[in-house]
User: Fold these one by one.
Assistant:
Number 1:
Amino acid sequence: MRIPKVKRQEKLRETIEETPFITDEELANKFNVSIQTIRLDRMELSIPELRERIKSVANHQWNETVKSLPLEDVIGEIIDLELDKRAISILDIGKEHVFTRNNIARGHHLFAQANSLAVAVINDELALTAKSVLNFKRQVRQGERVVAKAFVEGINEKGLTLVQVDSFVDSEKVFSGEFHMYRSTEKKENNE
Amino acid sequence: MRIPKVKRQEKLRETIEETPFITDEELANKFNVSIQTIRLDRMELSIPELRERIKSVANHQWNETVKSLPLEDVIGEIIDLELDKRAISILDIGKEHVFTRNNIARGHHLFAQANSLAVAVINDELALTAKSVLNFKRQVRQGERVVAKAFVEGINEKGLTLVQVDSFVDSEKVFSGEFHMYRSTEKKENNE
DNA sequence: GTTGCTATTATGACTTGGTACTAATAGTAA
DNA sequence: TTACTATTAGTACCAAGTCATAATAGCAAC
């Protein structure tokens, strides 16, 4: 069964970004079209042929230095905040957030945005993340805007505040996290 | 003026090691011999042709040793690596890692170190984090050294590879994470 | 001078993963 | 029916080779 051209081309680009060493023949098999269609698609999308891609990868300088994250406490820009209820922040994915080889955002930026929003939504500036459960739904690319929404869901039996954070690109969920937060004002014990 | 064969072949090997993207034609011009001679030389020296060399570099297999790092941006310094088994990295917490108001390391740096180590330990450079469960045990301060240790624990029923990462400061556990990783070579389905 | 060997060069068929171009076919909307 | 888009097929050509065969030149041994 064949998908529409626009969708196929979108997936083609993603596939080549994720597996740059794939041949046109393999792509034709994968998308159930002819090799000429793949080549027409690549031409329309300005995606170079396999050997050019291999050469680009080989030529690229991989030894990037680790980039320090921004010094702000909040990753992203808070655009809505209701303490102890909910908050929203946005993060525009720039090239400093992505792996240069495939323009995919590093997971820890998504986590950093979500985590800092979870801390920010709590009416306690000394709140700490004790535990979190993260789900990465799909890769985020340079140029996309991540909207993170945090909801305070209550306190569990251990006295930790539960904050759920869901992140979206264009109403498509790309990440979700469950954050179990210490509040400094409700700590049962103070140990380090 | 032409140099003897043995010397030429020695210089040929050196030249290709220094500039692996050089063509046979360029080598023939450089050594003042025919392109067939270069090809005979390469055959005798078991030096692969240009496209194979480019492919090797691109695949990061050229001169790969255990101490060569995988192509991910690793947070921290890998000091031990056994692919698909275990890895260790260290991260010295500087002021760029901490909140300025209390010198406490932000959680996402610990996560970033652990996550990148979980990716690095997997023998698949396209590995992705699908899900993770994080436990922050205590705060980490500026000036402390975080030693993260990753162990590949196996594959769960969903086909994801489980990697456990524990981080220590002076043999005291400060963080633990359970990472559920996609491998590109074992994907059960391709959805997004 | 001849023979045998090595080194070098030339030639041609073929491979792989394409580009570029032309042309044909099918589906669909107007 | 027409016009357009999407797709496919066919063909010439390209680059950087491999592989095989054959020719030539230089040189040492006899």
Number 2:
Amino acid sequence: MFIQIEPELDIPIYAQLVSQLIEAIARGNLTGGDSLPSVRSLAADLGMNMHTVNKAYHELERKEIIRIVPKSGAIINSLPQDGISGNHLERISKEIKPIIAEAIVLGMETKDINKLVTTIISTIKGE
Amino acid sequence: MFIQIEPELDIPIYAQLVSQLIEAIARGNLTGGDSLPSVRSLAADLGMNMHTVNKAYHELERKEIIRIVPKSGAIINSLPQDGISGNHLERISKEIKPIIAEAIVLGMETKDINKLVTTIISTIKGE
DNA sequence: CGTTTGTTCTATACTATATAGAACAATTCT
DNA sequence: AGAATTGTTCTATATAGTATAGAACAAACG
């Protein structure tokens, strides 16, 4: 599995797992309709507890990125054909706003930020 | 003061304060060389504890956005004339990457993300 | 000189994170 | 049908993070 967890970071490992799974989907390594590993097997692979993986899965479900079928497994949601929903756009806006403000404070111009974003998108899709 | 804290959110109030102060600087409400209120007076204004404000200030110092002069006060750093530093750029990249990945997973294209970013920059600077 | 400043210390309370193990019932596979 | 696997639920424990409270200190400020 394409997942690297670093317990020594000050980001909780369940949150790291959430981000890594999202990035795996973004880069096309996992796609709509695919199943995620069971919480037990992924926990064993990553050397962490079953409940920690379960927490990460439920966070992904809360974000409407996967759906969890009780006693069966977790499946990645397919994209709606009519683009991002209003709720999702609002959530992304709330998440990204403080970081953009920080970038401005550190001296970045609009064009610098747009360039950085474009570079990061390429990085994600190309990794 | 241009600060709104919402204790019922699941974001720690010290972290909310950090973000709000960064946004106040980004929008030009506070600028390089300006002093921040003392931890005691801002804590009284916001109805929170002195130590919580102190924690937020030290987080801003860790980000190199302010400097704290012991027994004196906190001053907002001025921008270096030669643009954002490598360290800062790397930090912004690490912070923004998981959110961009989430945006991709939710169906946003590169142009959608760049448009959103541009809109948010206008929102921040205009508020 | 008196006030204000950030700092440091002890203390308490609550929440969040992470692990552990067991048991359950539904689903899945053979 | 039977066995294995699944997510769920429960109790328990340990550690770290968040938030408040109050007191005391020495340096800086007016």
